[in-house]
Amino acid sequence: MAYYPDWVGDMYPPEKVDFSRIDWIDFAFAVPDANCNLGWDGAEATAPGLLQRLVAAAHAKGKKVKLSVGGWTGSKYFSPAVSNDQNRHTLVNNIVAMYKQFQLDGIDIDWEYPGQPGNDGNAVSSVDTTNFLSFLTLLRSQLPPTARISAAAQTVPFAGPDGQPVRDVSPFVNVLDWVLLMNYDVWGSSDMPGPNAPLSNACHNSTQPGASADAAINAWTAAGFPPQKLVLGVPSYGYVSRSAATRLRQRRSSPLAARSPDDPATADPSDPSTPDPSDPSTSDPSDPSTSDSTNPPTPNANTSNPPTPDADTKIVTLNPASGQIQYRDLLAQGALCAGGARGCGGFTRYWDACSSTPFLRSARAGQVVAYDDAQSLALKAQLARARGLRGVNMFDVAGDTYAGQLVDALRRGLGLQQ
User: Fold this and answer.
1) Is the residue at 338 inside a domain?
2) Is there a domain that residue 345 lies in?
3) Residue 346 lies in a domain
4) How many domains does the chain have?
5) Which residues form the domain of 113?
6) Is residue 150 within a helix (H) or strand (E), and if so which, with residue range?
7) Nearest CA to 60 among 25, 95, 29, 28?
8) CATH, residue 56
9) What gap in Å lies between CA 402 and CA 6, rounded to an integer?
10) Helix, strand, or coil (residue 110)
11) Which of 147, 337, 369, 399 could join 360 via S-S bond, C-beta 3.0 to 4.6 A?
């Protein structure tokens, strides 16, 4: 599964999607307005045509398309839209009309987030989650039985009246075909960068222990949602930070941080004795143990392909339009060498064993990139398979290479290909 955002049409036309690798694709985003009508996420002129082409391309290969409603900037009016029976009927009728107009196979509700503010300006109510269930029940009753309904959610269940995750989400099981766990955006750009999409809290030192793939699965299943109706959301992007940090941010450092996954270190990961140089509350710049020159992290080492010095003398400084950068752009801008296994242009690739994700660091450019690649995504897919999840969904398809390097890694992790 993967998302196809309406803003990637020029550089990644629908016809380039390789549906031999993808079973479902979510077109993002249709956006509710103050009157419960649906518009598009800033692409009114192009989105309808793109969606038509995407559906045609998918159906020609026997694959399915859902329309994703909402998104980070598109959830402003969700709370009032589901707050009463009249509004719910209006929104449901408009969604069903789009479902029929574009010959869709399902609907994805990406409300960010019921019972919590989310983006600036979002309406919020203490009864959002209760109203959300009423809305989904109505939507289920109005769509054909073959239509699939999914919801994109945080790594913790929807918020209750007290603002805390509800303990029982089992009432949603009958109205949702699956829930997508958005295991990304845990850390953004920062002078103290952290992992974008942690696999787990392997070092037991994270300031956000619930924001990982493993924790998300635990939280949702403990709240009554069956694993076979969960999908793990994974990113095809990372974040570029202006930073001199030598490792990704946790609560404190661990002997496992910034090591190779092949390193047989057995040191106690709970040992708090070594301060984290990226954490100003524990770092002493006069202490040589935190100096980049005397205690650098260990570059990622793969026993079959050991790292070699970067022969490219060109020094790359990444220039993303925002702090976010696609995996394909790390290759295109020269921070990753061809194949993605090694840093280029002055960047060195490291492995953060605490989150099971890679990061790039260039002391000369003064940049750190926390991202995911084929290695880390394969581990996430392996976790999804081991825990009995329905599958994985990547945001977004255009962040991958045209050759499908990331999607292929996910498929290998799921056991779908060698």
Assistant:
1) no
2) no
3) no
4) 1
5) 2-239+375-413
6) strand 148-153
7) 25
8) 3.20.20.80
9) 18
10) strand
11) 369
Query: At residue 262, what is the residue type?
Result: D
One-letter amino acid of 202: A
Is the Cβ–Cβ distance between 242 and 366 less than 8 Å?
A: yes
- For the whole model, what pTM was predicted? 0.87
- Angle (CA) 375 377 379, round 5°: 75
Angle at 245 between CA 239 and CA 251, to 5 degrees: 90
**SS3 track for 61-110:** CCCEEEEEEECCCCCCCHHHHCCCHHHHHHHHHHHHHHHHHCCCCEEEEE
pLDDT digit string (tens) for the chain, length 418 residues: 999 999 999 999 999 999 999 999 999 999 999 999 999 998 899 999 999 999 999 999 999 999 999 999 999 999 999 999 999 999 999 999 999 999 999 999 999 999 998 999 999 999 999 999 999 999 999 999 999 999 999 999 999 999 999 999 999 999 999 999 999 999 999 999 999 999 999 999 898 999 999 999 999 999 999 999 999 999 999 999 999 999 998 654 444 444 433 332 222 223 222 223 332 222 222 222 222 222 334 455 333 333 444 445 588 999 887 799 999 999 999 999 999 999 999 999 999 999 999 999 999 999 999 999 999 999 999 999 999 999 999 999 999 999 999 999 999 999 998 7
- 218 in any annotated domain: yes
The total number of residues shown for the chain amounts to 418
What ranges in 302-369 are assigned the alpha helix state H? Answer: 327-332
